[in-house]
């Protein structure tokens, strides 16, 4: 699990160029598969999506992932597969990303009087 944790740490350094949030917290990483290779090395297979099918930054993000994950000593090769099944949606974001992008509701002022209304 240490290698997978290191990979996730690297994915948190890969930022969507159009949204100031990392790919992991955006929920764009769907799967990480590890396959043992020789000499204590591992092949890494990542399945990811994009926020929109027409995103022109797919190759840039895939190359960024490959570069960063390849820097981990235990990694032999990295393959990135882009899919749109299922399509990405904002509910896939982590709480951290939602907060950074302002998706969380603003907390109300405490000690506000409760207003009761009745409709007949």
Counting helices, strands and paired strands, the structural category is alpha+beta
Mean pLDDT: 87
Spatial arrangement of strands, main beta sheet: 1-2-3
* Quaternary structure annotation: single chain
User: Biggest β-sheet: count, sense, barrel?
Assistant: 3 strands, mixed
Low-confidence stretches: 105-110
Radius of gyration: 19 Å
Question: How much helicity do the residues have?
Answer: 25-40%
- The number of distinct helices, counting runs of at least 4 residues, comes to 4
User: Could you give the count of β-strands?
Assistant: 3
| Strand residue percentage | 15-25%
**Element-by-element helix/strand order:** HHEEHEH
Span of the ends, CA to CA: 59 Å
What global shape is seen? Answer: globular
SSE layout and pairing:
Blueprint lengths: L1 H10 L11 H4 L2 E8 L5 E7 L9 H13 L4 E8 L12 H6 L20
Parallel strand pairs: 2-3
Antiparallel strand pairs: 1-2
Question: How would you describe this structure to a colleague?
Answer:
The protein has 120 residues and is of the alpha+beta class. 28% of the residues lie in helices and 19% in strands. It is built from four helices and three strands. It has helices at residues 2-11, 23-26, 58-70, 95-100; strands at 29-36, 42-48, 75-82. A three-stranded mixed beta sheet has the order 1-2-3. α3 (58-70) links the parallel β2 and β3.
Q: Summed up, what is this model?
A:
With 120 residues, this protein is an alpha+beta fold. Helices cover 28% and strands 19% of the residues.
């Amino acid at each position: 699990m240490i290698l997978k944790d290191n990979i996730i740490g690297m994915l948190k350094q890969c930022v969507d160029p159009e949204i100031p949030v990392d790919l992991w917290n955006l929920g764009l990483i769907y799967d990480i598969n590890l396959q043992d290779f020789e000499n204590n090395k591992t092949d890494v297979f990542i399945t990811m999506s994009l926020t929109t099918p027409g995103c022109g930054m797919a190759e840039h993000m895939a190359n960024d992932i490959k570069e960063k994950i390849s820097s981990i000593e235990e990694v032999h090769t990295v393959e990135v597969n882009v899919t749109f099944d299922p399509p990405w949606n904002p509910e896939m974001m982590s709480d951290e990303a939602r907060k950074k992008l302002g998706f969380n509701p603003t907390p109300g002022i405490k000690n506000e009087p409760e207003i009761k209304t009745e409709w007949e």
